[in-house]
Design goal:
A seven-stranded mixed β-sheet has the order 5-4-17-16-15-6-7. Strands 22-26-23-25-24-27 form a six-stranded mixed β-barrel. The protein has a four-stranded parallel β-sheet with strand order 11-10-9-13, covered by helices on one side. The longest helix has 19 residues. Helices cover about 30% and strands about 15% of the residues.
Amino acid sequence: MSTKIDLEQEGVEVKKACCYFCHQNCGCLVYVKDGKILHFEGDTEYPTNSGGLCCRGNVNLIHLDHEARVNFPLKRKGERGSGEWERITWEQAIDEIGTKLAEIRQHYGAEAVATAGGTSRTDDWARRRFMNLFGSPNGFHNAHLCWIPTFMIETAVYGWSPFEIDLGSSRCLVLWGQNPAISTLPEMSGVSGLKANGLKVIVIDPRFTETAAKADLWIPVRPGSDLALALAWINVIIYEGLADYDFVYEHCVGFDELTAHVEEFTPEWAEPLTGVSADLIREGARMYAMNKPGNIQWGTALDQIGKPAGATQHARAILRAITGNLDCPGADLLTGPSLEFVTDEEMELNEFLTEEQRAKQLGSDKFKLVTWPGYGRIAEIARKYWGKAPTAEWMCEAHPPTVFNAILTGEPYPVKALLVSATNPVNSYGESQKVLAALKAVDFMVTCDYWLTPTAMLSDYVLPMAGSFERPTITSTYGCSDFLMCSQRAIQPMYERHSDFEFWRDLGIRLGQKEHWPWETLEDAYFYRIKDLGYGVESYDEFVEFYRFHFPEREYFKYKEKGGFGTPSGKVEIYSSVLEELGYPPLPPYIAPVENEVDYPELAKEYPLILTTGAGVMPFHHSEHFNIKELRFIRHEPHMEINPDTAAEYGIQEGDWVWVETRRGRIKQKASLTEGIRPGTVFTERGWWYPERDLRNPELGGCLESNTNVLTSTADEDCDPLSGSWANRGLLCKVYKVSSSDRREDK
């Protein structure tokens, strides 16, 4: 308990809230008196953090009443980006926004309204509920770069995504493109403890990260070449007889076809493609296959390599299957959706979106896996097997680059309005110049946020959002877990802030959806979701105070009880009938990195270095927290990493400002020389903008100057043909020093 306040004083309450600054939603105990927060600390009984809080978590009170927070609804007065605002009431904002959306729907159709969402700061089911009732299929997140393609491919192969790992009994953990030492500290704490008890840890990453420093094996793969490594691992495991043949022949289909398919993909074949020696490739494959049970923990890297991404995710899924590391103790578990509480998908009202409108979803003609063609088929199979489907809000998305192109070109039809919730698209989506142009061009834009971000500055309305301590939260892995962790609001929202649930509900009621929004408060909606769990509580807050979590007992080998896996054949489909049905290769073909020196020798002459972007950097999360000086003190300038030998070739020294350039554009970051990155490889930090600068157009807080997404590619031919995920890694670049005559540019 806290020693900083007197718990004996009358009127002090302890609220079980959570931090909202990464996916973990770490538990907090918040001490409140008379509606004001006196103190907070980590909740020692919360499973993800056990009382610990990272630097982000420790600024919750600073974030709560920061001087730069948006506290009242704002309506644009002057030109877009001029920074001239009129303060209005929440009711006026909702009324005027609703009127404008109704006009757009009448003249252009509901599909002309799109919405961009953020990372777990919102109730995404409420956004999808509104959009389904409104009639538009064009909601999207940055989810294409973060787990969603992985989830859908794995669900196609074995019926659900094994994102929950049974690590306590594991003998080997593969961290593929993941660095929990800076992204999810609670996870790293658990890994460190288990490693001390004998867990083998393999890190696959071009950088010698904080996590790699603690690993048994570091495999410094060339960015974007993960597919070659995965295929070579499959080759080693099959041709050295390391597969779990009992599991394969009893529970899988397509193993014989796979055996023939990977015959040529030897470690020697993969060595020049990956930059990893054949011996090290074999060592990694053997360590994983021979230390059973084992886990492969998902990381964002494979979702961000563009064209090879889907095949790489398929190959990684096959590795689990051929070693039998599925749904058994110590392996990767297939929990399925919860049958005990109301899931996100059940809250979305997807049945209200007509087939005609589903067919208009932008990108669904090209990238079928995470749009209605693929989601619809996989949801149908899941309902038959599990009884419920995965959430649509994350697994069935309009293709963001296609939405931005539609704004700019009017093809295949015009998009006239963009509703932005908890995201800053100009810093978060690929080819930032194009995104910025779209934000400036769209007829009508509304942003719901904490801050006046560059995106918010270009909006017609900006609405103030409630933060982590001002709203309740249910954490359930984007609606796909069979468990949930619940937190309550510590205080009512300050000033005129509202939750996103209230925004979508109020807007929905304004547009004639009242009968579909029966809950007055977010707590009412949450209680509706959990009331049938059988805990005998009368309210959501009562559940949080006395129980807070619902964790079903882990079940193993569910496929035996259920007569197979959740696929059309009832087997693990190494040879995927679902992918084949959608028009994709049923086995993962080899696809080279989007840009490489073999296929594009002339490009490589001009851009001789290999670029990897997109990794998270403490203390920031995506493009968040740059406003908070206490966190900017920790990392106040953007840094790129380069090997000292490579830096010497270009006359670059530690601390030099350098340009990093690709065919799409250039940015500048400060050089950090380190042996912990492969020679010939450049790493850039993501998310950077400068809130302390002029936020008005054209500077917009320097949103392009150091923004790594300027460098990335969203061209259709560079995107994964299955999901549409674009290329953040495995690109070609060049670097050179910023000269004294260079002005601050690329704004």
